[in-house]
Write a structure and sequence with these properties.
This protein is an alpha+beta fold. The protein is built from six helices and 22 strands.
């Protein structure tokens, strides 16, 4: 299997790069697309569809390619993967139906392949990813086959926190999930979750929470704790209890876990009346958390080094 990467600041740049990518030895069947919401995802999707290329696409908050971070751009990974080894599913969903919809996705993957791997992206600023993961595991439901492989993340919108999109051939929505299901008996899928954010300060305890809403931290209002500790501001809007943070993306919470890396939860919104935080995913009551500071300039190097070490251990069985 071969791969080629493309990047551009416009649809025309991508059109030109795509035309030059086809050779007798490379005819792509799959495109993994990440792009700014400032770009026209519908046109990019149609452009790839015209070339008979299946699309797994999501809008982003910065595009990473060839060791560089782009902004307001389009980046594409083209693969000539055997179509018999993968399937793309697209499901419009909501917070209320995400678990049920993802359960169906897990069932579909299990019917298609004995050992499916799922690469997921979901749109919807407030759509929690946890029920999607839980639903896939429930739907696959084959403990005898071992753990199911799942990677993915949320679509972005250049940090506007307004509307994100996922898309595939002829379909796209701002509250949906797109899944690339791969036959792991034919194609190995492996990876690692890591980030460049640095935990700071002492460990604190979530003393009251429900789902993705944190009410108190160390028995103090969660919103006040975050604002006092980090000086994070909120966008004041009259007659609205739910408000948006001005810079919360840069100060996510790190939820500590036993024997594994912490999971990142961004406080995306706040309720001024309840003084609570509304996060990007579930934060269990009793969880231990630490606040984070923005990555240094060397954060990409650190992430790359972590991935390289993971790959080395995999190759040596360490």
């Amino acid at each position: 299997m071969q791969a080629k990467s493309l990047k551009g600041k416009s649809t025309e740049e991508i059109r030109s790069a795509l035309t030059g990518s086809f050779t007798d030895a490379f005819i792509p069947t799959l495109a993994i697309v990440f792009m700014s919401v400032k770009q026209d995802w519908q046109t990019i999707s149609r452009l790839l569809d015209e070339k008979a290329i299946q699309v797994f696409g999501a809008t982003t908050a910065g595009e990473f390619i060839d060791g560089e971070i782009e902004g307001g751009s389009i980046v594409i990974l083209l693969l000539d993967m055997n179509p018999a080894c993968f399937k793309i599913e697209f499901i419009e969903t909501s917070q209320d139906t995400a678990f049920k919809d993802s359960t169906k996705l897990g069932i579909t993957g299990g019917k298609m392949f004995t050992s499916p791997a799922f690469i997921i992206a979901n749109s919807g600023v407030s759509l929690d990813g946890d029920p999607i993961v839980e639903g896939i595991i429930e739907g696959f439901g084959k403990p005898s086959e071992g753990e199911v492989t799942i990677f993915g993340g949320k679509a972005g919108d250049d940090l506007a926190l307004e509307s994100t999109f996922v898309f595939t051939n002829g379909k796209g929505n701002n509250s949906a999930l797109v899944a690339l299901i791969i036959d792991e008996d034919k194609i190995e899928v492996s990876g690692i979750a890591t980030c460049g954010w640095k935990a700071v300060g002492t460990t604190k305890t979530v003393t009251k929470s429900e789902g993705s809403v944190i009410y108190t931290i160390d028995d103090k209002p969660a919103l006040d704790t975050l604002m006092n500790y980090l000086g994070v501001g909120i966008k004041q809007e009259e007659n609205k209890d739910i408000v948006t943070f001005l810079s919360s993306w840069y100060y996510p919470l790190q939820v500590e876990r036993d024997n594994v890396d912490p999971v990142i939860r961004t406080a995306m919104f706040a309720n001024r009346e309840e003084r609570s935080l509304i996060c990007s995913g579930k934060v269990p009551q009793g969880a231990k958390i630490r606040f984070s500071l923005p990555p240094d300039f060397d954060s990409i190097d650190k992430v790359v080094a972590t991935i390289a070490e993971h790959q080395r251990r995999g190759a040596t069985g360490g």
